[in-house]
Automatic annotation (TrEMBL):
The keyword Transmembrane belongs to this UniProt entry's keyword annotation: no
Listed SMART domains: REC
Protein transport among keywords: no
Protein name, UniProt field: Response regulatory domain-containing protein
GO annotation terms (biological process): phosphorelay signal transduction system
Pfam (any one): Response_reg
Coiled coil regions in record: none
Domain (Response regulatory) ranges: 1-112
Length: 126
């Protein structure tokens, strides 16, 4: 569903899907090595086939700052623990996936707008 909405809305230019943590980490390694362009945003589902997407967020954030690579975490869970864990790992935004396609599309469009505005804003360092 993420792929369909992301391409329909123009949220991302290109999209590569990793169905599990292992593949996602392999893709990050290639990007870190400079063998592939860094994406403009990382969309991570918490529930991946072989583990938690939080592992992917931790790994990406170890290399890339919040401004260099914004990360949007998607989950079917609205548990406060899951939300806190995602933000602690380095997510820029946490989006609860609704069951209805129309609502999911609206939320992804809102997330893309949020990222576009925050990416264009000068960063303050305190």
């Amino acid at each position: 569903m993420i792929e369909l909405v992301a391409t329909q809305t123009g949220c991302v230019d290109t999209l590569e899907r990793a169905h599990n943590v292992e593949t996602a980490l392999e893709i990050l390694e290639v990007i870190e090595a400079g063998e592939r362009d860094r994406p403009s945003v990382l969309l991570v589902d918490i529930n991946l086939g072989d583990g938690s997407g939080i592992t992917v967020v931790h790994r990406a954030r170890a290399t890339f700052s919040r401004t260099a690579l914004p990360i949007v975490v998607f989950s079917g869970s609205d548990s406060e623990t899951d939300v806190k864990q995602a933000y602690a790992a380095g997510a820029n935004l946490y989006v609860v996936k609704p069951m209805r396609f129309r609502e999911f599309r609206r939320r992804l469009v809102s997330a893309c707008r949020f990222l576009a505005v925050t990416a264009a804003r000068p960063q303050r360092h305190y």
